Amino acid sequence: MDINAGNMAVINVAYSKLFKDAFASSDVAYQDYTKTINLNKKTIGFPYLEKFAGMREWIGDRQVKSLASKKLQYDERSFEDTVEVPRRDIETNSWGEYGTLIEEMGNAAANKKGLLASEALTTNDTWAIDDKLFYAVDHAYGSNTINNYTALALSETTFNAAYLLMSTYQDHQGNPLFSTPNVLRVGPALRTTAWNILKNKFGYDSSDKVQIENVNKDLVDLIIDKTLIGAKANYWFLQVTKGVIKPIIQNIPKKVILTQLTKNTDANVFNSDTFRFGTNMYATTGKTFPHLCYGGFKS
User: Fold this and answer.
1) Three-class DSSP labels, 102-137
2) What is the pLDDT of residues 182-230, one digit of tens each?
3) What is the pTM of this model?
4) What is the DSSP pairing of strand 149-150 with strand 293-297?
5) What domain range includes position 190?
6) Alpha carbons 284 and 119: distance in angstroms, whole number
7) How many structural domains comprise the chain?
8) Are the C-beta atoms of 135 and 290 separated by less than 8 Å?
9) Which of 38, 154, 180, 264 has its CA 20 to 30 A from that of 299?
C-alpha cells in the first residue's frame, strides 16, 4: 500500500470505528452507583448542605442554606494509551492485524471509567467535610450519627444490621434521610452468600431446625461486581442508587477519541519509521455522602 493521504485516511477511519465500537460495548455496571457529569473543569466541587431535609414550616424570616461553608472537591487525573504500527506493516498491507489492539484500546478506555469509580468506592480515604475516613462509625449530622462502616463479613446478621442502620439515618434536624438501600454490591467470591440472603425463598431456623420464610427475599437488588476481586474479594456494599445524588460522582469533561500521528512530517514517522495511534482521557472521580453507601471491609 502506498503511503499517501488518501490511504492513510482510510486506515484512520477504520481504526477510529473499531475504537468507537469497542468503547461503546464495554462494561457499564458502575453507572448504577455513579453520577456522571461533563463539565470542562480540572477540579469539580459541590456543596455540602448541613440540612438535607429541604422544606421547613415558614415561621419568621427564611433560613437560607449556605453553599459556601463546606465543599467536596476533587482534582482531575489524566490517562493515555498508545499503539505503534511500523511503516512497513502499512506498506505491506498488514495494518489490519493491529485492529485488535485498537479495539482493546477502546475497551480499556471505557472500562477505565468503571475502574476509577470502583477505586473511589473501595478506598477508605478522608472525607473532606469532617476529616474523618469516609467509611466510619461516627459521622456527625448535627446531633445525629451516621455509621456506614463494618469490618465484619457479609452474613444475614450483618446485612440486617446495615439495612436497619441505613433505613433509620437522620439528617441535621432529626428528620429521616430516606436513605433506604436498594442495592447489595458484592464480588464473585460472595455471590453464593449474597444469593442465600436475598434470593432463597426460605431460610433455616437452627434453633427449631425448620425452614422459615426468607423476609429478605428480593429486598434489594443483587449486583455481582467484577472489580471486587483479589484483596477486595470479601468487600461488600449496601447502596442507595436511585436518588439524584449517587455514592460516586465522576466528571468526564471531553469525549474520548482516537488520535493519529501518521503524517510524514510527524516526529515519530520521521525518526523511528512508525505510525502512532493513541487515546487520552481526563477524569475526576470521588465519593459524595456517607449516608448513601455502607461499606463492609472484611480482609
Assistant:
1) HHHHHHHHHHHHHHHHHHHHHCCCEECCCCEECCCC
2) 999 999 999 999 999 999 998 766 565 677 899 999 999 999 999 999 9
3) 0.86
4) parallel
5) 5-56+64-297
6) 12
7) 1
8) yes
9) 180
